[in-house]
Amino acid sequence: MTGAREPRAREMTEDEIRQKARGGALALDIGCGLRRAEPGAIGMDWSPESGAEVVWDVNRYPWPLPEDAFARIHMSHIIEHLEDPVRGMREAHRVARNGAEIFIVTPHFSSHNSYTDPTHRHHFAPATFEYFTDREFATFIGPRCGFELLGVELSFGGNVLLDGLGKRIAKRSLKWYERHCAWVLPALDIRARLRAVK
């Protein structure tokens, strides 16, 4: 077998994770697969072949993780697989420390990647991440997940002309880009950064 696969990690208990969290700024990588977003991160994945320290279906709640344990949470290409993204974000909030940063990467709704994987249950726009804050909207109250939105941006492919044009338009106005250009100049991913507020 070839490739740089991480060695199979020993699964950790909730108490072991709590002990490790006391030792410093611990990171969690939800849906880690075969790699970690950062060295030393605790991986959680449904597959026992992943090398995750916590083998768990993220659609089962509560997650077997201690409250207020993680200083950083990475969710790369996982939120689109959740049955209930709001519940998943509330669970991420539960295990995050106050002030923890959450890094989310998911396909933009205009990306072919959003529709290619038959296990994707949801399609996202940059404004979706405002719903995970405690913001009150003009006509309704959001789901109150307890996060502050620090930033959101789109990534594009490598075509200098078309992707470069889409990127420039999106930087000027995300809303205008999505209403008028997204299906002509599709983005690849959304990169959102949130902070847990407790």
Number of helices: 5
CATH domain class? Alpha Beta
Q: What's the name of the CATH homologous superfamily?
A: Vaccinia Virus protein VP39
Helix content: 10-25%
**Could you state the order of secondary-structure elements as H and E?**
HEEEEHEHEHHE
Oligomer status? single chain
The major sheet is characterized as: 7 strands, mixed
The percentage of residues in β strands lies in 15-25%
Radius of gyration: 18 Å
Question: What structural class results from the helix and strand content?
Answer: alpha/beta
Explain what the structure shows:
- It is a single chain.
- The protein has 198 residues and is α/β, with parallel strands linked by helices.
- It has one domain: 3-Layer(aba) Sandwich (Rossmann fold).
- Helix content is 22%, strand content 23%.
- It has 5 helices and 7 strands.
- The protein has helices at residues 14-22, 85-95, 112-116, 162-172, 174-180; strands spanning 27-30, 42-45, 54-55, 70-76, 96-107, 147-155, 189-196.
- It has a 7-stranded mixed beta sheet with strand order 3-2-1-4-5-7-6.
- Strand 4, helix 2 (85-95) and strand 5 form a beta-alpha-beta unit.
- Helix 4 crosses helix 5 (174-180).
- The longest helix has 11 residues, at 85-95.
- The radius of gyration is 18 Å and the shape is globular.
- The protein starts with 13 loop residues before the first helix and ends with a strand.
- The model is unreliable at 1-7 (pLDDT under 50).
